[in-house]
């Protein structure tokens, strides 16, 4: 296991307080020793959970001291009581840190429409605070406590030299279901010891989301709770300037990109993912919508499940995505095998291509839809019987 | 079995010519003894099959003599050869009827990207012509020959008295997969002996599609071949006027509505359908988009599979549909049980509501999203492991 390069000046804890019947960790606390700059990107769903409403009000900020997250309960569609509970979570953390409630951010994930068991949550926050630490095991504990139906932990980090000085970035995420662009049911917390202005933090948060988390989908259902937070406490004393911002942005993406891919790979029931790369569209936006539409088609996703080189499903999905395409210049290549060229099928060996798909966990699809300059990509999971079984048995 | 009320002046045949390996019927022929007025509504996919391109050019028309349909092969994404083959099908029918090729319409459905086995198809057309008849069994034979993965025959008819005179309407359809609004992989042929102008035929064809076939979905994948044709040969000598057009329109919908519902109910792997009725939206268009988005969510569809009254999935899908909703005035009722009222959950017994869902083959969902005047509905199937198994095994 690779070592996490933890940014300076943060402490972490993850504990179990009994929100989850499984007794797995369900309260995560990340604390900054000094006030950090923070910005957020949130769900575009109009039905938003209480914690998202609170984070939206409080970011961007220059005075964030902590992020508290609970898993096992989304605190969504819970009315006024939900607001009161989310505020109480922040208040309790603030009290323990001798800070203001406005300096605490909150995230929740889990079932919708149930009130939080606040006595348990309060106890959990106290326990988390008592066990805060700055070691890798503490970070991993905090990362594990935000998971729900995820099969694996999602963490990444980077150490980058900017102008001869070192900064670090680390991130944790959770995914699994209700995954769609526009910040599906996913939570991500990115921390760095670089020194950012709130304006920079907001810009980086958005560009990172657009390049990574907004390009993956599992089931196309945009959640009520999606949140990506970026915290920068400046503990490295390295400021981000015009000269190094490109390197910093690349480092941010190097940390978040594998987490975004892990979200799709760890989609409920997923066995395989597909990277749909679209080019030749009239604009990047058009290419993105086409890639996303192909990735969302249940027929494309079940073809992937069966390792079936069913190019007709991909080409026809591109045709109904909306943006103008040129059917007579449309070409499709899967794992290096060209299956469709300028609007007509090529002669290819189905068994060979099927085996090429079977050999990959991440299948490469190149779709040319015309001769325009627009290109983008989208990562999607396959649709398996396990997804259906899991989600038709999941209890309200 | 109810008797089909066949319009006057049409003959029918369905035969097997070997396009389908199963040796089931795969060539369907419907002939008008006199030239009929005809109009069509077609897929909105930009990747369109050769037969759709030909029908688009030929409708509206006042001189249609026949509709020839093959199943088992979509003749889609087949390039210039596909055009040539579709034209040859029309030409062959025209020759047998001593008519012009322009007076023949053609539909195809089945796998994408394979060339039609034209010697077999030509033989099939000859055989169908030789067995044309005007009896119910002939009509049913023609209806069976357009089916693909459908589990059941889809036919309906009506006899209506307009101004004391009788007209008849009959229709056949096929569905099963790639079903989405905007004329998914579905074919429908509606015939009547009423007397319509081409303008009337076009108007009725569109309004019927909007009210019925465009409100059902199975997998949200818009096909390359969707076609709804309306033929009116005037054999009843009853013209449609301002005075009786409302009654005629209602009769058309009474024939096509059950076929549209049958498409969803017979969706690949479907066990249950859901009628999502949205009201309180800002416009009917908004309501339609919300109802369609709820119906398309895999999480909503799998909740239906599990008879799970998981209202959070429905409410959150409404929240990401796009149109403005009022979360604080959002209410949800399933099978008469109110589960969510003005943005907060109600106290309800999950087992009771789950049983109420289980008791129905068509589940009634009422979703209020605000206080606007807009309302619409959408019919969707559940998502079962059978759908996934079927579509991940389906060979290119």
From TrEMBL, chains A, B:
Residues binding substrate: 148, 174, 185, 268, 391, 396
Gene Ontology biological-process entries: L-arginine biosynthetic process; ornithine biosynthetic process
Pathway(s) where this gene product acts: Amino-acid biosynthesis; L-arginine biosynthesis; L-ornithine and N-acetyl-L-glutamate from L-glutamate and N(2)-acetyl-L-ornithine (cyclic): step 1/1; Amino-acid biosynthesis; L-arginine biosynthesis; N(2)-acetyl-L-ornithine from L-glutamate: step 1/4
Catalytic activity reported: N(2)-acetyl-L-ornithine + L-glutamate = N-acetyl-L-glutamate + L-ornithine; L-glutamate + acetyl-CoA = N-acetyl-L-glutamate + CoA + H(+)
TM helices/strands, residue ranges: none
Subcellular location: Cytoplasm
Enzyme Commission number: 2.3.1.35, 2.3.1.1
Active site: 185
Residues annotated as site: Cleavage: 184-185
Record GO terms (molecular function): L-glutamate N-acetyltransferase activity; L-glutamate N-acetyltransferase activity, acting on acetyl-L-ornithine as donor
Keyword Disulfide bond appears in the UniProt entry: no
InterPro entries in alphabetical order: Arg_biosynth_ArgJ (IPR002813), ArgJ-like_dom_sf (IPR016117), ArgJ_beta_C (IPR042195)
Keywords: Acyltransferase, Amino-acid biosynthesis, Arginine biosynthesis, Autocatalytic cleavage, Cytoplasm, Multifunctional enzyme, Transferase
GO terms under cellular component: cytoplasm
Superkingdom assignment: Bacteria
Chain positions of site Involved in the stabilization of negative charge on the oxyanion by the formation of the oxyanion hole: 109-110
General function of this protein: Catalyzes two activities which are involved in the cyclic version of arginine biosynthesis: the synthesis of N-acetylglutamate from glutamate and acetyl-CoA as the acetyl donor, and of ornithine by transacetylation between N(2)-acetylornithine and glutamate.
Family (UniProt): Belongs to the ArgJ family.
Subunit structure: Heterotetramer of two alpha and two beta chains.
Protein name: Arginine biosynthesis bifunctional protein ArgJ
Species this protein is from: Stieleria bergensis
């Amino acid at each position: 296991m690779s070592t996490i390069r933890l940014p300076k000046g943060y402490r972490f804890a993850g504990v179990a307080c009994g929100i989850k019947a499984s007794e797995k960790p369900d309260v995560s606390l990340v604390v900054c020793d000094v006030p950090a700059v923070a910005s957020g990107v949130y769900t575009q769903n109009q039905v938003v959970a209480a914690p998202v409403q609170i984070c939206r009000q409080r970011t961007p900020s220059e005075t964030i001291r902590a992020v508290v997250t609970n898993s096992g309960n989304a605190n969504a569609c819970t009315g006024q009581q939900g607001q009161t509970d989310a505020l109480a979570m922040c208040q309790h953390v603030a009290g323990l840190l001798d800070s203001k409630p406005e300096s605490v951010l909150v995230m929740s994930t889990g079932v919708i429409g149930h009130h939080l068991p606040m006595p348990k949550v309060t106890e959990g926050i106290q326990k988390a605070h008592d066990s805060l630490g700055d070691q890798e095991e503490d970070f991993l504990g905090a990362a594990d406590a935000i998971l729900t139906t995820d099969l694996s932990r999602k963490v990444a980090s980077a150490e980058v030299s900017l102008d001869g000085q070192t900064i670090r970035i680390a991130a944790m995420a959770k995914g699994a279901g209700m995954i769609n662009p526009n910040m599906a049911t996913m939570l991500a917390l990115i921390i760095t010891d670089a020194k950012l202005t709130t304006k920079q933090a907001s810009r980086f948060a958005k560009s990172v989301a657009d390049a990574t988390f907004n390009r993956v989908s599992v089931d196309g259902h945009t959640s009520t709770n999606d949140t990506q937070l970026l915290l920068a406490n400046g503990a490295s004393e390295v400021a981000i300037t015009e000269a190094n911002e490109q390197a910093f942005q690349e480092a941010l993406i190097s940390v978040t990109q594998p987490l975004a891919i892990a979200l799709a790979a760890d989609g409920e029931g997923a066995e395989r993912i597909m990277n749909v790369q679209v080019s030749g569209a009239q604009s990047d936006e058009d290419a993105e919508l086409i890639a996303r539409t192909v990735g969302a088609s249940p027929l494309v996703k079940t073809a992937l499940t069966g390792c079936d080189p069913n190019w007709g499903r991909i080409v026809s999905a591109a045709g109904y995505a909306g943006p103008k395409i040129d059917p007579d210049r449309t070409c499709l290549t899967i794992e290096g095998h060209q299956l469709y060229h300028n609007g007509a099928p090529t002669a290819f060996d189905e068994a060979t291509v099927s085996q090429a798909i079977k050999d990959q966990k991440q299948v490469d699809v190149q779709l040319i839809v015309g001769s325009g300059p627009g290109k983008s990509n989208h990562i999607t999971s396959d649709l398996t019987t396990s997804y259906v079984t899991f989600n038709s048995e999941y209890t309200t």
